[in-house]
Amino acid sequence: MSLFDEILNTDIEDWAEYPNLNTLSKAILAGQKILELSASKENLEHHDVIIISMYRKVLEQADGLFILLDHDSNSAATSTIRTLYETSIGMQFIFENEDLLANRANSYYVSYMHEQITWAKKAMKSGELSTIYTVEELKEKITKFEASLAKEPLKSVNNVWLREKAKLEKKNKHFPPKWYSLYGSATSFTQLASKYKGTHPLLYSGYSLESHGFTALQNIVTDEETNKQFLAPLRYRHSGYDTLCYLSRTIVSLCASLMVNRYCPEIKHEFEELFETNRLESENLL
């Protein structure tokens, strides 16, 4: 019996009405199995834990997108697929070069810790979060992260981060370096995403408008018969619904393939069968 047989034979309750949502559900369920298998491997290194955590984030974002699509929450779903896309591009970047894989994964974590340190220091200085965090708690957070950055395997990556930060400051650019710029040439997400075939930078740009709140007027609908305008309901089946389902399924499957090849090669054949079945089902619905 294949690892994924149960998933292939299990459909969501209203699958006949929402077939695209059904294929997304199967991709997420398969991803959870791959996540569990990957996390159960022995002798995982620091960078492996980071990669597995990123993959979990992909599944979490896809699962959230599934819930939003199931409830016809178009605006939130559009914003969510943007973040899902960003995380998936980050994973592709890390997996792109085996020799740089560990450093790229660790640079993701190093940059995160610097963001947290900066945030905690600002919170201490302003006192705006004093009802939520005590000064001692913020100091403890800073101390914890700084201690991690001072030890390998993060120390060497942190030194690269500090050098890049110094270079930016010499150019009067007072912001931290992008994590993917430490061991890559891209200095912006759009530049990074353009490196990967099969991705959708134009759709990303469009979805960014939603995230920045620039699409409010799209909710004004004109009745063709009366020529009167009215506001669309908060929840309704948007024309881009199937596209969101298809794109998110594609992203989840792409990231799953990266994980299988590296952490679960023993299930590669089973995964390829699942992927092909789910792909054909999805494309037949377009």
Q: State the separation between the terminal residues, measured CA to CA.
A: 30 Å
Main beta-sheet annotation: 2 strands, antiparallel
Instruction: List the secondary-structure elements in sequence, H or E.
Output: HHHHHHHHHEEHH
Strand content: under 5%
Helical coverage, percent range: 55-70%
Number of separate domains: 1
* CA-based gyration radius: 22 Å
- Give the beta-strand count: 2
Strand order of the largest sheet: 1-2
Structural class: mainly alpha
Alpha plus pi helix count: 11
- Estimate the global geometry from the Cα principal axes: globular
Mean pLDDT: 89
> Uncertain regions: pLDDT < 50 for 5+ in a row?
none
Structure description:
The chain is mainly α and 286 residues long. It has one domain (5-284). It contains eleven helices and two strands, in the order αααααααααββαα. The chain has helices at 5-8, 19-39, 46-70, 74-95, 101-126, 135-149, 155-170, 189-193, 201-211, 241-263, 268-284; strands at residues 220-222, 229-231. A two-stranded antiparallel ribbon has the order 1-2. Helix 2 (19-39) packs parallel to helix 10 and helix 2 packs antiparallel against helix 11 (268-284). It is globular and about 60 Å long.
Summary tags:
globular, 11 helices, mainly alpha, two-stranded antiparallel ribbon, 2 strands, 286 residues
